[in-house]
Design brief:
It catalyses: [(1->4)-N-acetyl-beta-D-glucosaminyl](n) + UDP-N-acetyl-alpha-D-glucosamine = [(1->4)-N-acetyl-beta-D-glucosaminyl](n+1) + UDP + H(+). Helix content is about 60%, strand content about 10%. The protein is α/β, with parallel strands linked by helices. It folds into three domains: about 425 residues, no CATH class; about 300 residues, no CATH class; about 220 residues, no CATH class. A hairpin with a 5-residue loop joins β6 and β7.
Length: about 1250
């Protein structure tokens, strides 16, 4: 299916590119023909109209470029170029504009059609010459040198044959000599259009500092240069056109009085030309990005020139032969045919537009004697020479390497197309590079990838999913194979609260969850070893794995069959702070602070140049990525590679997320499947296209190290919650808060829908409500935080314009008013079903939510959820009645033009079309019926529950000091180690920019927070009443004693299939962790007094936010109620339309309630629907390119293909999955996983993806 999709897509693209190039060139040459003196399709006095259209073709791309560059200059920072740079660019642009205008407006209308078709290929003359020069200066053997020389000579030969053909025909005809000379000169000047392509290479090879600075200035100041150059080209074209018309004794007055017939002809031709040229350029770029350069770009454009020749010459020959046949044997030469038919215009051949155009084309050939072999020979020779010259000058394109997501600015030199030279401009505009050893070395930057998963109480089946995914990636990107050195990876799993106390043992033991993880590692290791036949050929013995004691607990290091490493960090909550956010802080500082920065600091101490080290460090930070995973995430290797593509191609993308699929069974999961689908199909794509994704979910997101180490990101993410609002924003949705920090620093967050990942969803109603109780308030807090910094963020982040922030304001307002909107929906249904007054129905609809809100402030959360469950069932029946009432109102009123029916039909149509655009998820539409029934529960009751319980920030665990009997570090020993480690830690992190923090958000300011500014350790998430154990009551035992039995011996005893060898931690790394724990990750102490204060603060914050939240809903309802009282004044009257879409003569009155309901949802959904279409197109581009560049993975043995994935289980129970079922779950059959979506840049080709 996937291969068929690829073949169909590429075939369609190739045909479209060929067809559009053909339409563009044919329509342009028809305009040239209509401007000829002998045309009869248009009156002779209307030639200025045709010339004006030619001028429009020349300047239309410059107009678009000017508008785009001016828009960027208004909303982004644009650097002003030097005067020398402006002079150089404008000089070449003047030559190009003058040449194009002279060639097309002045010279070509006086030449024959064959010459006009092929002389456009001669604009490759300077490109061929510059290719020869740049390759000769490279001083290396290059396979393009001979073709470039041949191309240059062939184009010169074409010029010679062309001059001989026209001048020798009548050497005394001065006008013809002038036209021919202007044609040659104009085409030569036009060939300067692609000077940047070769100026860049020349400046790289030259020793001239001036040329290097000039080239750098041209590159960095493109925006302002494009504004100036586009204005110059428009002015030069207008000047040539304006001067030529009166010089050729034509009058501009005819432009204001064009007859309708001629207007229609001209409008169709110019419309086809402009539209086909723009679309041909776009589809050509798409073809290159789909990695189909040869099949869908080069070959169709080569053939387009030949096809244009056939389309013009064949009708001429057919009409000529038909005329000779009608003469009943009488012979007539081509010259006689021209005199009698073409110039005389036999009316039998002039009955429609097409015959007239054919005769106009024939008229251009009448100057030449097509009866003579010499004329035909010279004409054919020049045509063939020019075409072959273009082919050889662009021969390097056949060997051009294109990345999977090729940026347009990296593929094409100029950002515009030339409508008059569509295929030539596309081919010659492609970048020309001389491949040298150094260039190849520079282009191959290896990415370092860290997979970081966090675990706590995942079930056996859930942990099996992520471990299998990691081993699949090891098989997909083997470290021991040089072919896959573009990405190397390590896996780090951070296991919270992994230890338990065992009586009679001097050391802690791993708990049952951690033991299950070790069992899974052992089992999956054996399975993947058996799958790979080559393993035992090269590695006859399974390598020894390592187990290490660490200051935070323990570490297990497993080397996978293909050389990559899994490192499991077992965290002891008595030694280091636990919970997910602190595990993330731990691996961020360890991987980015210690592992990335240490080697550069050591080299700096050895005396290496700091500037070079800084540049090298920046490159590594740009090419180091962290994949955040949950403990139950299941993903395929190709999904990860699609995420890496985004970060590799766009330097300002700080994070990218994939398409998350919830797994499980039951009504709660079915609801979430449709909810997730709609969220990704419409909401996330809309954010991606018109602005920037606001939240990259922590279960499957890829982050760039440079973004995480930026000011106010990693450092601020390690901030402890000290205020009530911090608990909601920082701790309830840590992934959204991290993205908020990235967005504030100007980084872009993207969404790649082709990267699929699967994670367990809550299967229980209570579990779902508790999950959303955390998500709702944290989302509101982070979005409000972003909206509050709109002016600063819009300046710093190009992807987050003020227009996009207004869209987010509209979206969050709609979410806040969702409860009131649901009440309006229910009121409308009650009006129809019970047949009561709409005002009374509105009051009845509001009463149950008000009662439930009051109960949420009085009852326990479990009781609240139980009541919500009962009410959800009642509301589900009511929603069924609502659906029936909409259909009933349509039948009763005998019209589909009612507010409710328009909304429902519109939404259903949008969702169905959206599902069709996602063919492999179309079955989720059936879950939409359950989703409709659950709308009141999800958007009314759940919202009330979340807002009323936002003061509950406990996740059910506690962070406290060790209890009596726990294994704790010796205070004296720890103090000694701390003193030794402190200087090491500060040395490494004083040089690291990730240690900067600021409470403000200035546009360009870096604030360094010193150690003395850090807040003191305070209890966090402990509003549940923990007891603090006094420090003097704890037992102080040495951390690194060797007890009789501990987790080391425990793992060695249980791992019979995988041998574990005890190893020790590097001394400096050990000191690093000790200082890291002391500074950021020390277990938090319990403070009953502070707990009580924070509990009161949270309750007070809850009350304030709830008051504002529900007052807004109340005001919305009151406004609607007031409009209902004065319905006659506010009602909208529309003509009644029956089911045949014909007016009945009656009117339909739209009441205010229905109007407010439609107003609240329709606009945002339509915007999301349109952006979805755009997003799907670029998804297809990226995915097809991926299929063409990624190697096919070897299929596993049939035994493993038979199994299915282990079924995910509820997070509150431990699975008893057997080893047999686990071995079946390793099926690699999902390697070619389902195709979803992707995208590329929107309007801004640099990848910023912003509308403003």
């Amino acid at each position: 299916m996937i291969k068929l999709l690829k073949i169909i897509s590429l075939s369609v693209i190739a045909v479209v590119v060929f067809g559009l190039a053909l339409c563009s060139k044919v329509s342009f040459l028809l305009l040239i023909t209509l401007s000829n003196e002998g045309t009869k399709t248009l009156p002779d006095e209307m030639r200025p109209v045709a010339l004006l259209c030619i001028g429009c073709v020349l300047i239309i791309s410059s107009v678009f470029l000017f508008l785009k560059s001016f828009w960027k200059a208004c909303y982004k920072t644009s650097k002003l170029p030097k005067k020398s740079t402006i002079a150089l660019v404008l000089f070449f642009e003047f030559l190009v504009a003058m040449g194009a205008a002279i060639l097309t407006i002045v010279a070509m209308p006086h030449l024959d059609i064959v010459t006009n078709v092929t002389i456009l290929n001669s604009v490759a003359v300077l490109s061929a010459l510059l290719q020869v020069i740049t390759q000769c200066t490279a001083k290396q053997t290059n396979r393009y040198l001979v073709p470039s020389i041949t191309a240059f000579l062939l184009i010169l030969l074409g010029y010679v044959l062309f001059l001989v053909l026209y001048i020798m025909k009548d050497p005394t005809d001065i006008k013809t000599i002038i036209w021919v000379g202007l044609a040659v000169g104009g085409s030569f000047l036009m060939s300067f259009n692609w000077w940047e392509n070769y100026f860049r290479l020349i400046s790289e090879k030259t020793k001239s500092i001036f040329l290097k600075a000039l080239c750098r200035d041209v590159k960095t100041c493109q925006n302002m240069l494009q504004i100036l150059s586009s204005m110059l080209r428009i002015a030069v074209t207008a000047g040539v056109l304006g001067a030529y018309v009166p010089l050729d004794k034509m009058d501009w007055k005819i432009v204001t009085s064009i007859p309708s017939r001629e207007t229609k002809i001209i409008a169709i031709i110019i419309g086809v030309q402009l539209i086909s040229s723009a679309l041909c350029h776009w589809f050509s770029v798409v073809a290159c990005k789909m990695h189909a350069l040869r099949r869908c770009f080069i070959l169709p454009l080569y053939l387009a020139s030949l096809a244009v020749m056939v389309l013009f010459v064949v009708p001429v020959i057919v009409y000529y032969q038909d005329y000779r046949t009608n003469l009943n044997g009488t012979t007539i030469s081509f010259t006689g045919y021209c005199n009698e038919v073409v110039d005389g215009r036999n009316q039998s051949l002039n009955g429609s537009v097409f015959p007239g155009l054919v005769l106009d084309v024939t008229h251009t050939l009448c100057f030449l004697d097509m009866s003579k072999i010499t004329d035909i020979g010279f004409l054919t020779g020049s045509a063939v020479s020019w075409w072959l010259g273009l082919v050889l000058a662009t021969l390097h394109l056949w060997y051009l390497n294109v990345s999977r997501i090729q940026r347009t600015q990296d593929l094409f030199v100029r950002r515009v197309f030339e409508g008059a030279f569509i295929e030539q401009s596309l081919l010659l505009n492609t970048r020309f590079d001389i491949q040298t050893k150094n260039r190849r070395k520079e282009s191959s930057n290896t990415a370092m990838l860290y997979l970081c998963g966090t675990m706590w109480h995942e079930t056996y089946a859930e942990m099996m999913n992520i471990i299998i995914s990691i081993f699949r990636l090891d098989k997909y990107r083997p470290k021991i194979d040089r072919k896959f050195n573009d990405v190397t990876f390590e896996t780090h799993i951070y296991f919270d609260d992994a230890f338990k106390h065992v009586k009679g043992s001097r050391g802690n033991h791993l708990n049952s969850y951690a033991e299950d993880l070790v069992k899974i590692l052992t089992e999956v290791y054996g399975i993947f070893t058996n799958i790979d036949d080559k393993f035992f050929k090269h590695n006859k013995q399974v390598p020894m794995q390592k187990i290490i004691r660490t200051p935070y607990g323990g570490r297990l290091v497993v080397t996978m069959p293909h050389g990559n490493v899994i490192i499991v960090h077992f965290k002891d909550k008595d030694l280091i702070r636990h919970k997910k956010r602190w595990s993330q802080v731990m691996y961020l500082y360890y991987l980015l602070g210690w592992k990335l920065m240490t080697k550069y600091y050591a080299r700096l101490k050895k005396g290496e140049d700091k500037a070079e080290l800084t540049a090298e460090l920046q490159r590594e930070k740009q090419n180091t990525y962290i994949l955040a995973l949950d403990g139950d995430t299941d993903f395929q290797p190709h999904a990860l590679m699609l995420l890496i593509d985004r970060l590799k191609m766009y330097p300002r993308v700080g994070a990218v997320c994939g398409r998350i699929h919830p797994t499980g069974s039951g009504p709660a999961v079915w609801f979430q499947k449709f909810e997730y689908a709609v969220s990704h199909w419409l909401q996330k794509t809309a954010e991606h296209v018109i602005g920037c994704v606001l939240c990259s979910p922590g279960c499957f997101s890829l982050f760039r190290a440079a973004a995480l180490m930026d000011d106010n990101v990693m450092k601020k993410y390690a901030t402890k919650s000290t205020e009530a609002s911090h608990y909601i924003q920082y701790d309830q949705g840590e992934d959204r808060w991290l993205c908020t920090l990235l967005l504030k620093q100007g980084w872009r967050v993207e969404y790649n829908a082709a990267a699929d990942a699967y994670t367990n969803a809550p299967e229980d109603f209570k579990e779902l409500y508790n999950q959303r109780r955390r998500w709702g308030p944290s989302t509101l807090a982070n979005v409000v935080d972003l909206l509050g910094s709109t002016s600063i963020i819009s300046k710093r982040n190009p992807s987050m314009s003020k227009l996009f922030m207004f869209y987010q304001l509209f979206a969050i307002t709609s979410a806040i008013l969702a409860p009131a909107t649901i009440c309006l929906l229910i009121a409308g249904s009650l009006t129809f079903v019970i047949d009561i007054d709409s005002n009374v129905a509105l009051v009845l609809a509001v009463i149950p939510p008000i009662i439930y809100l009051a109960l949420c402030f009085k009852l326990k959360s479990d009781t609240q959820i139980t009541i919500a469950g009962v009410m959800s069932i009642i509301y589900a029946f009511l929603m069924l009645v609502v659906s029936m009432s909409i259909i009933g109102s349509m039948v009763e009123d005998e019209t589909i033009l009612t507010p409710s029916s328009i909304f429902v039909i519109g939404m259903a149509t949008i969702y169905v079309i959206t599902a069709i655009m996602h063919p492999q998820e179309i079955q989720l539409v059936f879950h939409g019926f359950l989703y409709i029934l659950c709308i009141p529960s999800a958007y009314l009751l759940l919202t009330i529950y979340s807002m009323a319980n936002m003061n509950n920030v406990s996740w059910g665990t506690r962070e406290s000091k060790p209890t009596s009997g726990a294994a704790t570090p010796d205070p004296v020993a720890m103090q000694t180690k701390t003193q030794r480690a402190k200087s090491t830690f500060q040395r490494y992190f004083s040089w690291c920019k990730c240690c900067k923090k600021s409470n403000q958000l200035p546009v360009n300011q870096e604030v360094l927070i010193t150690e003395s500014q850090q807040p003191e350790l305070q209890p966090q998430n402990t509003i549940v009443g923990d007891e603090r154990i006094p420090e003097e009551q704890t037992q102080a035992e040495p951390l690194f004693d060797s007890p009789i039995q501990c987790f080391v011996t425990q793992l060695q005893d249980m791992s019979t299939d995988m041998q574990l060898e005890e190893d020790s931690l590097d001394k400096e790394e050990e000191e690093f962790f000790i200082e890291l724990q002391k500074k950021y990750l020390e277990p938090l102490q319990d403070d009953k007094e502070r707990q009580k204060t924070m509990s009161n603060d949270l309750r007070e914050l809850r009350n304030k936010i709830n008051f504002a939240f529900f007052i807004m809903n109340a005001l919305w309802l009151v406004a609607t109620f007031t409009m209902q009282l004065f319905g006659a004044s506010f009602s909208i009257v529309l003509p009644k339309v029956d089911f045949d879409l014909e007016t009945t003569g009656e009117d339909v009155i739209i009441d205010p309630i229905a109007f407010m309901f439609i107003l609240g949802f329709a606009l945002s959904v339509v915007i999301q629907f349109l952006t979805m279409f755009y997003h799907r197109i670029y998804t297809l581009i990226h995915y097809v390119a991926f299929l063409d560049t990624e190697p096919n993975e070897k299929k596993p043995e049939p035994l493993y293909l038979e199994g299915k994935k282990a079924k995910p289980q509820s997070s509150d129970s431990v699975s008893d999955t057997s080893a047999d079922s686990v071995s079946d779950s390793v099926s690699d059959s999902e390697v070619g996983s389902e195709f979803e979506e992707s995208e590329d840049e929107f309007f801004d080709e640099s990848g910023n993806g912003t509308m403003v």
